[in-house]
Amino acid sequence: MNNIRNFSIIAHIDHGKSTLADRMLEVTHTIEARKMKDQVLDRMDLERERGITIKMQPVRMEYVDQTVPYVLNLIDTPGHIDFSYEVSRALNAVEGVVLLVDATQGVQAQTLTTLGMAREHHLVIIPVLSKIDAPLARIDEIKLELAELLDVPVDSIIETSGKTGKGVPELLAAIIERVPPPAKVESDHQFRGLVFDFQYSNHRGVIVYVRTTDGAVKKGDQLKFGASKKTFQALEVGVFMPDETPTERLSAGEIGYIVTGIKEPGVASVGDTIMPASGGMVPLPGYKKPAPVVWASVYPESQDDFLLLKQALSRLQLSDSSLSFEEESSGVLGRGYRCGFLGMLHLEIITERLRREFNLDLVITLPSITYEVELVNGKKEIVYSPHKFPEYGKIKLVREPWAEVTLIAPSDYVGSIMQILYEHEAESRATETFGDGRTKLTIDMPLRELMRGFFDKIKSVSSGYASVSYEFGEMRDADVCRMDIVVADEPVVAFTRVIARRRLEEEAEETVERLHAVMPRQQFVAKIQALALGRIVSSKTMQAFRKDVTAKLYGGDITRKMKLLEKQKKGKKKMRAQGKVNIPHEVFLTMIRGSEK
Prior knowledge:
Elements: E1 4-11, H1 17-27, H2 45-50, E2 57-65, E3 68-76, H3 84-91, E4 96-102, H4 109-120, E5 124-130, H5 139-150, E6 158-159, H6 168-178, E7 192-201, E8 205-214, E9 216-218, E10 222-225, E11 231-233, E12 236-240, E13 244-246, E14 249-251, E15 255-259, E16 273-276, E17 294-300, H7 306-319, E18 324-330, E19 334-341, H8 344-358, E20 362-364, E21 371-375, E22 380-383, E23 395-410, H9 414-423, E24 427-433, E25 438-446, H10 447-450, H11 454-461, E26 467-477, E27 480-487, E28 490-491, E29 497-500, H12 504-518, E30 526-532, E31 535-542, H13 558-578, H14 585-593
Parallel strand pairs: 1-3, 1-4, 4-5, 5-6
Antiparallel strand pairs: 2-3, 7-8, 7-16, 8-15, 9-14, 10-11, 10-16, 12-13, 12-15, 17-19, 17-20, 18-19, 21-22, 21-23, 23-25, 23-26, 24-25, 27-28, 27-29, 27-30, 30-31
Helix pairs in contact: 7-8
């Protein structure tokens, strides 16, 4: 155990974590040069396309430092705030972290968040500067900023380049020197391991990723899950190099995987403890279950795909334990699932994976948050779906979640940012100016406003230089109402929203205008209306297609034309009474994204 080092790389998004991990794998010869590619630890096509890490990925590196062999277990983590739960789980399985800061950008909002998480876990923090070879790198300036933040000497900060590999051997030596080996646990040498992640294989069942704390495990051992009490036989044990590589055993302090062979859903869970089936061991403290922040309903376009959607969500939940879902039904859209996500990017990634990996055509409702509603009759409800929000006149009080937001941006952009904060009902709590001309703003704002394109607007007005991170705060009173969209006298549940009352007129007109622009015309006249507070707030008429029924006439009495036109008029009237508007899938997507295609 003295020669094992378990560590993780944490940083703000796009500060070069995965690139630095690539260079580490090269220096330690974990991957042959001919098999090397960019972002080797990012396994999903989606991760490669977007250039972001979505799933944490463990890897074992064997490295010789001054003739002494060491085992370095690295867990690469995501940088986006939506995937901070992945980061927190990874930090529970290691003793130290590499805190990476981009030499061109300096300390960002998410840097502070991940640093706070590392300190909560009492981990050793190794400060590292990345991208030192970039033309705009401000090495001395950023090193001083990082030294002040961590209260460490400037010369303890290691300079690296993920592009050229400069400084990587020095970083590996620092990890060996500064990160402590796994703590020895006094026990009777029975096996015990913490499940920090898992995945599902059609052939091998659930494969759990474990951090071994006590004893050792080998193929054929009889084991059980601490929480579900399900027993199983270890079909294979091994380590990540970075592909799954079978080994004879997994010993205390090591990070690896165990193939369980279990194919039932709900047996394995993140934070569970694996121990001998014979008993005698106490489960380890697990993880706190993440609370969903954003809710959206997911419906299959064809109800024939309903069971396939259920299977797909169950499969995704095995690889992403922060996803939650429950069945619901809508009169217009049929049966579907109400899903909970950790943020807007999380929602986007999950729905994209459902389409790609399971070939599903989906309709996704506009995302919403959770509200606490007290009715006039004294009854209290927790509302997850906008269409279940009580009608006007029945509500006595509404409470909504607020977020504590940290925003770091160049001081020149603070004036423009303040205007955005006012539009999103934010309250400024504190302002702090850094020495390099950047300002840190600490603000409180409603979570619903954070979802209303806040990140995109801040990036836009700050020319991409601002960074934002947030944590959940308290529940506060809310002045909101429900807005329904009605097309041809039929409410469209997917477009129902809960919005601030002060923005009702603006939102209603904007939504109706946008829907009118993207909706295909029908065979009959149809009205698009926005209803709220017991009245029609905005309305627009969609004109019908009209065939020239008199085109075939080439003469004769005018009454011949009048007869045909009258017949067409009656047909249109009948169609308007009985007809139903079919809203295409693309219209739902366009409305949800908030922009016309």
